[in-house]
Amino acid sequence: MQKLGGRREIDIGYNGFPTPYRLENLSSSAGRGNVRKLVELLAPLIDIAVLPIAFAAGLALKFVRRLGISRLPRTRRLFRALGVYPIRNHYYEPLFETNTLRRPLEEDRELPAVDLNAHGQLELLKNFSFQDELVTFPMNRESELGFYYDNNAFGPGDAEVFYSIIRHAKPRRIIEIGSGHSTLIARNAIAANQVDDTKYTCRHICIEPYENAWLKELDVELIRTPVELVDLPVFAELEADDILFIDSSHMIRPQGDVLFEYLEILPILQSGVFVHIHDIRTPKDYWPTWLSRDVRFWNEQYLVEAFLSFNNQYQIIAALNFLKHHHPAELADSCPVFGKRIDFWEPGSLWLRRV
Prior knowledge:
By secondary structure, the chain is α/β, with parallel strands linked by helices. It has two domains: 15-95, no CATH class; 118-354, Rossmann fold. It has helices spanning 29-67, 73-82, 118-126, 131-134, 158-169, 181-196, 233-236, 257-265, 288-293, 300-308, 320-326, 328-334, 336-339; strands at residues 10-12, 18-21, 173-177, 203-207, 221-223, 243-246, 274-277, 314-319, 350-354. The strands form two sheets. A seven-stranded mixed beta sheet has the order 5-4-3-6-7-9-8. Strand 6, helix 8 (257-265) and strand 7 form a beta-alpha-beta unit.
């Protein structure tokens, strides 16, 4: 089987959970790796050194917010020019403290209006028979443009299910909003379909405005435009068994990508289209380290859950984090690479299908 590929590199957090993505260039990844190691080595010293500055700045910024940024136009313009903005611990702000939580973040939440469709998820897994192909991909990077599992962005479980759905459904069109390791495993699945059927074709569109210069080296249609500026007819062309893959900013912003995806794209998709959403942990909250240690303000998952509430137009067909915690044996059987790492690897793909 022909191997295609590339890579997207991110920093690694504790417990194998990824910290925010960074821009990467394949040609100088080794140099950046050395810089990263140096930063990690010096971080404890830097932490101590900046404490007095952070304390003074924190008091000043808190005063600015208490006074009201509307009264300080020059300060407001300065913040915008710097690309930073102070956030208070206040009920009107996105910051939260763990002492306000009603239950541990690791617990399943009650979502009475969301049908997890556990039986349907398990039936989908039974349709996958590509285990022998999945184990041929390497764990570690072997080439500049080759998929490998231990990438901490789209690894075991997530990549295996994406590959299996492409092999099983044989989509004629795939649109990725956000591209990287997912693109690489998809190219391999498409190539495998073409080995089975020489007449098979798949139009593969990648909407990636920010990262991965190497995408131009792949056989994809590359759109370097924010998704919210892409014409809706591009998505309306998707038909039954085609795939819309969403891995964008994860943040609700006025007129931003996430709102465009859920309020404008998903309502116009045709029946039978598969939709993937990344970094979703339903029915649990986001990973505790993301919320408390990394202080991420991601909120896409909660919009997804609201979207699915009382929604008979979309059906959950695979919630991988739910399957990992509630049906691990069945998921491991379909995803053999994940199965060997099930005790420490946390998948985050949510798959829907338009009814």
